[in-house]
């Protein structure tokens, strides 16, 4: 429900993106390889639409998801695929840490979204570093300060791009992928995480 309310913003690339919180690098993966990966990830992933609870009512999460990782150690995860391992190998040196899991998000069109949240589950510790790789439709990744919602920035996450959410981001900032009024094609996002 909250995801429906006034979230049709189409923000662009903010100036002065706080580099202590976020680092954006387009072109981590080239267009041709990215196109192939996008098609394969959409086709081969056993996507699920989970339920989320809000105000005591259950809603279907407005996107599809799937977890992969060190399945022999972490319950509920599928084992790494060669493709996901290859992407992990690219992002780990850029993040400066190792990851044992990745959450895949599939935004089928502009109507799919993720509402304002921070990724601070206790299983990741309070200052997690998260590496994010995007394929497909360009979507705006918005961040806002928890104490002052007027303090906000946006990054347009392009096909094949890399975004590093640094350790300070989750504690004092929230992020989202807003819905779009423009018709949009599919997007798949991978967020590599260290679950402890
Ligand atoms: O799709 C994205 O770029 C962000 C996804 C996200 O915030 C998450 O999986 O926690
Ligand atoms: Fe997130």
Automatic annotation (TrEMBL):
A molecular function (GO) term: dioxygenase activity
Keywords: Dioxygenase, Oxidoreductase
Fe2OG dioxygenase domain residues: 98-196
Matching Pfam families: 2OG-FeII_Oxy_2 (PF13532)
Keyword Oxidoreductase assigned: yes
Domain of life: Bacteria
Record flagged with keyword Oxidoreductase: yes
Name assigned to this protein: Alpha-ketoglutarate-dependent dioxygenase AlkB
Species of provenance: Mucilaginibacter angelicae
């Amino acid at each position: 429900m909250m995801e429906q309310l006034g979230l049709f913003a189409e923000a662009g690339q903010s100036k002065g993106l706080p580099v202590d919180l976020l680092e954006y690098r387009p072109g981590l993966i080239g267009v041709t390889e990215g196109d192939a990966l996008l098609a394969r990830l959409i086709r081969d992933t056993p996507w699920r639409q989970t339920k989320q609870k809000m105000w005591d009512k259950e809603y279907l999460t407005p996107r599809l998801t799937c977890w992969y990782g060190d399945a022999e150690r972490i319950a509920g995860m599928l084992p790494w695929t060669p493709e996901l391992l290859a992407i992990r190998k690219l992002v780990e040196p850029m993040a400066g840490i190792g990851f044992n899991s990745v959450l895949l998000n599939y935004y089928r069109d502009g109507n799919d979204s993720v509402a304002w949240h921070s990724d601070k589950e206790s299983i990741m510790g309070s200052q997690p570093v998260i590496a994010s790789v995007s394929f497909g439709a360009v979507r705006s990744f918005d961040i806002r300060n928890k104490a002052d919602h007027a303090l906000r920035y946006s990054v347009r996450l392009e096909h094949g791009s890399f975004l590093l959410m640094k350790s300070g981001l989750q504690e004092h900032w929230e992020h989202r992928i807003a819905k779009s009024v423009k018709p949009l094609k599919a997007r798949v996002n991978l967020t590599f995480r260290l679950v402890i």
